[in-house]
Amino acid sequence: MSLITELSALFPAPRIKTRPIDRHAWSVDAGFYTLIPKAVVFPENVEEVKALFQLARKYNTSITFRTAGTSLSGQSVTDGIMADLSRHWKQASIQDDGRTIHVEPGLTGQAVNRLLFPHRRKIGPDPASINSAMMGGILSNNSSGMCCGVKYNSYHTLQSIRFVLPDGQLYDTGNPEHYQRFEIDSTTIATGIRQLRQRLLADKDLTTEIRRKYKLKNTVGYSLNAFIDYEHPLDILAHLLIGAEGTLAFIAGATLNTIPDKPYKITGLLFFATPRAACDAIGALTVSGAEALEFMDRAALRSIEQLPGAPPFLQSLPDEVSCILCEYQAEDKQTLDQVFNNAKEALSALPLVQPAEFTEDPHEQAIYWKLRKGMYPSVAAVRAKGTSVMLEDVAVPVENLGDAVVDLQKLFAKHGYTNALVFGHAREGNLHFLVSQSIATAEDIQLFKAFNDNLAGLIIQKYHGSLKAEHGTGRQIAPYVRDEWGDEAYRIMEQLKALVDPHSLLNPGVILNPDKECHLKNLKSLPVVESEVDKCVECGYCEHRCPSREFTLTPRQRIVLRRSLARLKAAGDTATYKSILKDYQHDGLDTCAVDGLCSLECPVTINTGDLVKRLRKENHSPTARRISMTIARHFGAVESIVRTGLRMGLAVNKLFGPHSMTRLTKFIRKSLPAFPLWPSQSIAPAHITISADQPDAIYFPCCMNRLMGADTTGGGAAGDALASVAQKAGLSLQTPKSIRSQCCGQAFGSKGFPNAQAHAANKLIASLWEETRQGKIPVVLDISSCTQSLRSSASSLTDENRQRMEKMTILDSPEFALEKLIPRLPVVNKKEKIVLHPVCSVYKMGSLEKLKQLGAHCATQVEIPASAGCCGMAGDRGFYYPGLIAAATAGESREVKAQNSPDCYSTSRPCELALSEATGRTYRSIFHLIDDVTPPKSSQTPSSAG
């Protein structure tokens, strides 16, 4: 028997990955290091974790538990077993009206806060990565953030924790019986923790130092304050797990005390002549009641001065000017006014170089915070190819903050980091800084070493601060833990690790590492590959938006593998290179939905879908490209052929039962996996033609609605509903005369046929130009993705058609409904409750609020599932890869079923089919919704199924 054989017996095939493509895909996190795991497994429950510990002991191999992989210090990579918790472990339960919440490690911080939002509560930690970071990492790194300080970090908001020790013992500090059981079943550990506590408390100098250090943010080493703050060994161990980076136990869940989510805020930018002047103001601003004080030096301001919304005067500020983003918060407007009025005296006494302007406008506040958060992407986007962005994190006593900023700037100059910038949570003395770092040569690595050594000397010796305030020790700071804490504290940490994890199974080399140069090994090189790949900083922020993340790969992993291929090719590892390249076709290209939602979360706005489309294009043969152009040129004939095929399928269903074609295509797919699956939902071609002498709008029915838009159960196509509500509103519509020969080109573009896409788009724009009387009449489309595709097709158009499109008004269905229909239609049958699914293009076009407004106009209660995202249909991809839809909609499906609402709507027929399949509910067009809630008009609608 081998390790892989036994792992394969423990985990079913979908939950274990051992191929080279998988091992390389999970070989990095957001930090500087790369290690290739032996296997990646996805445990679902505590029993599987216990069995995993047994195998690790048997084969003397390590385990690293990982959630989102957004860690910055190398603590979530391994060359042992990777246990990924991100696909499961997502349960949460709210208690005491939101004052506490129990969470499992696979939930993102954002998801937890979304659950707490109705209770006007939130978790204490508020890291910048909260949209992506998961609770396992937030707890294991003792995360804090911009506003929570030390008081509300993970350690101080922990109420109880449930964990499994490396020997398989399970404890829950929320269960009083476990305290006695811990002393009986884990006597050695309990006794050892007591002895370490007594030894530590006997050392008055060390006790004093611990109290001093934890007044600052500090995530270096183990949380030694637990020995002082708690007496019972189980409580001590529970709090040692916070910030232990997965080196002591597996955290199965935790109950956290929550804090008020203060909805009323007033925010302003304060500009000072120098960094020291800005930092000297921190004390007065803190006393005045400011909850957020974010420092930005001149280099940081320079990096964002070109961003939209940046005040124009930023560009003319002198070189030493620094800024503090200041925010006051309260639970109600009256309290906010009182707090801010009391603060005005302190604000007026500040030596500002620019008048302070505070705002309560949420839009303006969002701009300020976007500027504050825009420094990372700004630097990342302009860094030299092949270099990483090093985001470092230190803390010093607040009274030394100004001097520390100046010293850091001198350190940058000394080591040649010409583009470095400093920002941070000034209220807590916490500074972040960004530099670009290459490791391509031995000289680069020596520069990295020298800088880290000098930084350690500066922060530890001169300022008695923390080398890591928030980001965890990891591999990067492990060589400096003894330097920061001293010999005795370090020995206590070593003995703690040996006591709890005697076989060093859990994340060895992280936090404690005898190798003083471990931070210089296994460094992640970034070979220059291609434009999209080269911009990526591998932060992982994109992953939670990706529909294929639990099916094949994430956007980050698609990019990581492109870099792995380049490294393998350079190293001459032909076998591994060929293996990854072969599997990349399916995992990296075929199953990417190219929805582009990843770009909305990416700090450098990479659309991995564009990369995939380009790679698809490069993989196409000349024959395939010729066929695509033939289809584009003769789209009407092709549509007729498809219509005929669909009618034949409908005939089969009529003769042999409604699901006969679904069963038949499933059978065919066993031999021909690339054969499309017939949907179990009701479909039929729709014949949509409307004519009017003086139309108020040109209605372009998109090809998927024309081919599959009619519901054979009698529900009618989106075009039927649109024609009906337009008639009710007294509006005349007209469809283009050559409708069946027209397509927006999206289907060609997503498959990597840009020439065919360009042909289709140009043909459609030329046709619509004539139909709209040279742009005088607006155009409405009935599928949002087609609207977005057409609006973003400028680069594919001829100069003439580009100018034509600029003069035309192209409306998506929610826009047309709000602007043209709703003002003319009374709502008489308002729905009690509806569920909406915003398709990808609604997010990309920024029209989510319009969809919400439309829903609120038609229903008393509008639900948009928290996990709503790309459904994975991607036009027709879901017909070929139904597993993609199942994985993409799993969370949303659970939510929709729990809502128990029969009324579900969206703005894309393919997505409606996918969601109907996944949820068991029937999704329809928003035009059906409007038709349902508005009074009938006795007139025949000019559309019918055909």
Give an overview of the whole structure.
The chain is α/β, with parallel strands linked by helices and 946 residues long. It is 45% helix and 13% strand. It contains 43 helices and 28 strands. The chain has a seven-stranded antiparallel β-sheet, sandwiched between helices. A five-stranded antiparallel β-sheet has the order 5-6-10-8-9. Helix 31 (718-728) packs across helix 43. The radius of gyration is 30 Å and the shape is globular. The protein starts with a helix and ends with a strand.
Give the structure's gist in a few sentences.
With 946 residues, this protein is of the alpha/beta class. 45% of the residues lie in helices and 13% in strands. It is globular and about 90 Å long.
CATH C-level class of the largest domain is Alpha Beta
Amino-to-carboxy terminus distance:
62 Å
Discrete helix count: 43
Question: How much is the radius of gyration in Å?
Answer: 30 Å
The low-confidence parts are 939-946
Relative strand content: 5-15%
* Helix content range: 40-55%
Give the strand order of the largest sheet, numbering strands 1, 2, ... along the chain.
Answer: 15-12-14-13-17-18-16
CATH architecture of the largest domain: 2-Layer Sandwich
Tell me the total number of β-strands: 28
- Secondary structure category: alpha/beta
Annotated CATH topology of the largest domain: Uridine Diphospho-n-acetylenolpyruvylglucosamine Reductase, domain 3
The quaternary structure here is single chain
What overall form do the CA principal axes indicate?
globular
Number of domains: 5
Mean pLDDT across every amino acid position: 93
Question: How would you sum up the major sheet?
Answer: 7 strands, antiparallel
